[in-house]
Automatic annotation (TrEMBL):
Membrane-spanning residues: none
Name of this protein: Cupin domain-containing protein
Swiss-Prot/TrEMBL keywords: Metal-binding
Occurrences of domain Cupin type-2 (ranges): 69-132
Origin species: Cognatishimia coralii
Matches recorded under InterPro entries: Cupin_2 (IPR013096), GPI/OXD (IPR051610), RmlC-like_jellyroll (IPR014710), RmlC_Cupin_sf (IPR011051)
Alphabetized SUPFAM superfamilies for the sequence: RmlC-like cupins
Highest taxon, organism lineage: Bacteria
Matches recorded under Pfam families: Cupin_2
Amino acid sequence: MTPQDMEVRIVRYGDLKPCKTAFIDAHTPGSDQKENFTIIGGGVSESPDQHVHITTPHGFNIGAAGQPPKCRNSLHDHRTAEVFFVLSGRWRFFWGRWGDAGEVTLEPGDIFNIPTGIFRGFENIGTDYGMIMAILGGNDAGGGVMWAPQVIEDAADHGLILAETGKLYDTKKGEALPDGVKPMPLLTAEELALRPEPTTADVLPNHVARYLDMMAYSDKSPCKVIGETGLLKDKPGFEVDFISRASASDQMHSHDKPSVLMPVKGHWRVDWDGGTTTLAPGDTMSIPEGLSHRATPSMTGEAALYHIIATDDPAGLTWTGH
């Protein structure tokens, strides 16, 4: 495969195209400065303005959220797995019907396999603009986002209405729901009562992995982070490996499914049959199935990257109640 062919499968951090109207809380004070990025797959954006960088199906979606300090993403849920790792900044993740059931703070390189079936949100609590990278299960990411009722109500107060079709309408621009289209219904009290409210102690041991721990675990071989035998044991429809300088191999290899490389520290040289390139933190590279390749650090210093590949497991619920 030529370098020109591969270039369309590489999304550089500096080339990411943000959408500031991706979701229903785009006008809500405190959430109106966030930027959403859809890197691989259609994602779950509710806006026609969302740019998709790579449309090739991978069995999962890759996206990102960029937010200035004190900006938050409102309480929501997905029907498939949602995994975040911190690229930059300091982030507080919180969950539950009102966002007060539990919380955890993540630093660069940390990863969180957020349990489905509970509302979750996050905010940048650092002092600079921060970025978190996201993996969503399934090619269609489960068909959209489910919002806590108060998020939909607050959004309507600031001009945004979400239709039952999943499309946003901005009354500040003179838009209105089309004839015959109803607003997205709020979850009922009975539906809300069925949602678990796990505490921080319930969630952390099985759903959060720390960067420094993964560096230690990957001293001889790549660390399986998410998978049936991973640090975070789960089968969400994809596996995530953590590779450090110590565990990077110079052996060429291939996979029977498309895979994705996402550096979090250092610069990485990627060689394949037909070319070579260098990736930096924030870059995303899709490797076609069957293509022989390898990834190795290209400079001295700390180096780590995440490797994602789909599995044949259904991209279903991940919360197991422990």
